[in-house]
Amino acid sequence: MIKIYGIKTCGSVRKAIAFMNEHNIEFEFVDFKTTKVEKSKIKELATKAPLDVLLNTKGTKYKTLQLKELNLNESGKLQWLTDENMLFKRPVIEFDSKLIVGYDEKLYLDIFTH
Asked: Percentage of the chain surpassing pLDDT 70?
């Protein structure tokens, strides 16, 4: 089963959901605003994509929390992603043993329609 993690108001997440719907691909949506992703799950996701890819360093939340100044190590990044799921780059799409972070229509076509 494909899982899409994100928030409904994010443009990239909306594009990913629209893509799945247009191609009749079933998925489960996990909303960061209503569902807390636990540390064990984040550690699992981090085995499929580096924390530097998962952590959205360009987002408002990252800037508001002034995390750049903290010069976070891997455990610090993991802890912040656990404490504040809104720091994830979106969407995060989990399927099989793989993970895609962000919206990329060409990549989605290659992976999900072949």
From this structure: 100
Instruction: Please state the pTM of the whole predicted model.
Output: 0.93
**Could you tell me the domains of the chain?**
2-112 (3.40.30.10)
H or E stretch at 5: strand 2-6
Q: Which residues contact residue 18 at a Cβ distance below 8 angstroms, ignoring those fewer than 6 apart?
A: none
User: In the chain, which residue ranges form alpha helices assigned H by DSSP?
Assistant: 11-22, 39-46, 51-54, 60-64, 74-83, 105-112
State the Cα–Cα distance between residues 65 and 98, nearest whole angstrom.
Answer: 30
Quickly state the pLDDT bin for 114 (edges 50, 70, 90). confident
